[in-house]
C-alpha cells in the first residue's frame, strides 16, 4: 500500500539525518513523503466517498451530504 512507501521514505530521512545529510537533501525527501501522504489521503477519501455514495443511493438517499463530507475531509487534511 501507499503507506508502506511513506514508511520507507521516513526511515530513509531518519537515516539521512543520522548520516548528517545536507538540509536540502532531507527537505527534498520529507517533501516527497508529504506528497505520498497527500496522495494516500486523496485515495482513501475517494474510495470511501464512492462506497458511501453507493450505499446512500441504494437507500434512496441524497449523496450530496456524502460529497460535502468528503470535501471537508480533503480540506482538513491540508
Please characterize this protein's 3D structure.
The protein is an all-alpha fold. Helices cover 86% and strands 0% of the residues. It has helices at residues 2-18, 23-58, 64-77. The longest helix has 36 residues, at 23-58. The chain is elongated. The chain starts with a helix and ends with a helix. The mean pLDDT is 88.
Notable characteristics:
3 helices, mainly alpha, 78 residues
Order of helices and strands: HHH
First-residue to last-residue Cα separation: 21 Å
**Portion in helices:** over 70%
Number of helices: 3
Radius of gyration over C-alpha positions, nearest whole angstrom? 18 Å
What about the largest sheet?
none
- Average predicted local confidence, pLDDT: 88
Beta-strand content bin: under 5%
Gross geometry: elongated
Secondary structure class reads mainly alpha
Number of strands: 0
Q: Which residues sit in consecutive blocks of at least 5 with pLDDT less than 50?
A: none
Task: Describe the secondary-structure layout.
Elements: H1 2-18, H2 23-58, H3 64-77
Could you give a quick summary of the protein structure above?
This protein has 78 residues and is mostly helical. Helix content is 86%, strand content 0%.
Amino acid at each position: 500500500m501507499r503507506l508502506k512507501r511513506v514508511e520507507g521514505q521516513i526511515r530513509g530521512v531518519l537515516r539521512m539525518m543520522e548520516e548528517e545529510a545536507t538540509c536540502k537533501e532531507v527537505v527534498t525527501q520529507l517533501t516527497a513523503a508529504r506528497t505520498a501522504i497527500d496522495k494516500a489521503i486523496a485515495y482513501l477519501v475517494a474510495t470511501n466517498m464512492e462506497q458511501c455514495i453507493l450505499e446512500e443511493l441504494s437507500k434512496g438517499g441524497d449523496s450530496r451530504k456524502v460529497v460535502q463530507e468528503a470535501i471537508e475531509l480533503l480540506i482538513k487534511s491540508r
